[in-house]
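Most newcomers find our protein records easier to grasp once they have seen one. There is nothing in a record beyond a sequence line and a structure line. Getting from the letters to the tokens is the skill we practise here. An example says more than a description, so a record of this kind follows:
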Amino acid sequence: MEIIGALLISTLAGLSTILGGLVILFKFKEENITKFITASLAFSLSIMIGISITDLIPESTYILLQTYGLTKGIILCLMLFVIGIILIKYLNKLIARAEKNKSDLYKLGILNMLALILHNFPEGIATFMSSYKDMELGLKLALAISFHNIPEGICIAVPIYYATKSKKEAILKTFYSGIAEPIGAILAFIFLHKFISNSLISLILILVAGIMITLAIDGILPKAQKFNLKKYLYLGIGVGGALIIFNYLVF
């Protein structure tokens, strides 16, 4: 029963990503589409950087320093962060080759999806293991994860929808990202429950932080600046920043 409950909690937390993707169902006038894209991309990059700076990096670094000591802990953090930067740049090149006939906005959506799958996978492990040990703790963690999974769905759905005009494809891609969380939970139970530790999850999340910050600065920011709508750029960044601060203070 504990296993089923833990799996259900991690599934609901992961699939909350789809709620963010549903923003594409709202209709916008043609002249407002570029404003919406600019604000949404700015919001996305703010969320990605904010989650990394306020959540992933501090908590993971603290655990790694406790586990490995000051010198080794810092070296591991820097090494995994740099690997994350290199990995997303490499993925960018691969996607550019594989999707050479697609628009830059579509490629950005795919990159967002891949980055957030990597992010959601260890989150699924953490949610499942927490829920398995303590259902109340798992629910609290799932609520916090759901809160930032919703804007992550926007990161994926908006660029893909406006590149393809396909609501089905945009929602499907957010589903792929969200389902990574329960998949991570299942794999954790089958293969890793004997080996999973806070330090292993922290190493993965430092890697993910490097990926998300690089993607936000190198990938999303240039696209958000493309339409030269600074007012909506700053609006998106401001709303995303406010949401991150609220999430940090409440959870």
Summary: The chain is about 90% helix and 0% strand. The radius of gyration is 18 Å.
